[in-house]
Design brief:
By secondary structure, the protein is mainly beta. Helix content is 0%, strand content 61%.
Length: 103
Amino acid sequence: MATPPGRSFAVNSDLHFSFLVYNATPNLVLQTKLFRDGKVVKAEPPSGVTNSDNLRQNLITNVMRLTPDLEPGHYYLQVAITGEGAKNKKSAMSQWVDFEIVK
């Protein structure tokens, strides 16, 4: 399986990413995880997200450091957002993207 051009990153570099959350609720929490061969190799601690004034469309940006201990190869980044919806029910969504780490 080939990685599309533009999705190759060097070890010890920063992986910048952004995404839109539509119809956001207040008090969103972001969790990012890095997978290789179906196993978590790096997980960032959950962190609060600063909502924009327009909760209908909220742009979120973040960065994950690709540390020197990561081997070259194919990886998946999972981004998960949780928040409280109507009647204090937890809601969640997640998205994945694949990329390659090269030397």
